[in-house]
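At this stage, I put together one protein's amino acid sequence and its backbone structure tokens, which the following lines show:
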Amino acid sequence: FSLSLLQRCMVDSWDVWSDYKPHAARPFGNKPVWVGYDPAGDSQTSDHQGLIVLAPPQVEGGKFRILEYVQFHGLDYQEQATEVEKITKRYHVEFIGIDTSGMGNAVHQLVKLFYPAATAINYSIEVKTEIVLKTQTAMRNGRFEFDAGAVDIAQSFMSIRKHVTPSGRHATYSSGRTTKVGHADLAWAAMNAMYRAPLSDAQQHQTIVDIL
């Protein structure tokens, strides 16, 4: 994710998102949102935890918008699940995707107690590639937005790198860990929300028709 690509996604949300009221009790009214969560594997490590609230397109060919994001540090599993639950009380949540490839399974199990449809995302090479390509495609097509002031989101995406697996047979994506961006948890959280998105505009249109 290059800086030039991410700059194309940055907007002044106060000017262009007239349907989003961040300080309201229901910031997005009754419109659906998708939630992506990237939990830390161990609350005693330097890992951060990232949560993203993503507005899916409301019309065919529309835009994905990161409405809200939160980054935590050092929360135990129950505390992480509680933060996810707070979001479900403020938004009409249509989808929750949680990375369970590590210790995130515990958070997923707790979230299912109040949101049974929460989706477990196991980070195989294929799944990582799919969600990265979905997000990159949306960005390149001018269909992905976040507030220009959210520089930590941009930094999180830029920390993700493509590399070859030890076997040399596959390419995959990963990120290092830094104090500032964790292990790109905000970017992975956003892409966990994008897990719900179909691969093509035709599939997306069919999904919208089905929901309506």
About this structure: Helices lie at 3-7, 13-16, 77-90, 104-111, 125-140, 151-158, 185-194, 201-211. DSSP finds eight helices and nine strands in the chain.
